[in-house]
Amino acid sequence: MKLYFQFMYILLFSIVGEFLSTGLNLPVPGSIIGMVLLFVALKLKWLRLRQIYDVGQFLIENMTILFLPAGVGIMSHWGAISKYWWQIIVIVVLAIVVNIAVIGFVTQFVKRRFEGDYKK
């Protein structure tokens, strides 16, 4: 019964996010809004981590299965995508480089700002 309640909490936040996204015509997917709301609820201690921990761990461990439909969707629309494959690859590679650079700069900033620069 505990797992059902944990799953219910996660689904509740996802459904609220979907309603907000649809009702307010937001350009952000409802699932993302729901996860942000879940994060806020955890940070404000409206919801305890132990209340969603087991189901959350299960979902994280099975994430590859959850992303499988996206891969199948790409393959089913390959005819429309195939004309632009090299542009898609360039965008993905540039996005990876930008992400790595931003993560590196943010990590260096946080380390210097909050931990100091340790020299031997």
Automatic annotation (TrEMBL):
Bilayer-crossing residues are: 30-47, 59-78, 84-110
Q: Which domain of life is it from?
A: Bacteria
Q: Where in the cell is it found?
A: Cell membrane
Q: How does this protein lie in the membrane?
A: Multi-pass membrane protein
Q: Which Pfam families does the record match to this protein?
A: LrgA (PF03788)
Instruction: Give Gene Ontology CC terms.
Output: plasma membrane
Query: What are the UniProt keywords, alphabetically?
Result: Cell membrane, Membrane, Transmembrane, Transmembrane helix
InterPro entries the UniProt entry points to? LrgA/CidA
* Name of the protein described by the UniProt record: CidA/LrgA family protein
Native organism = Pseudolactococcus insecticola
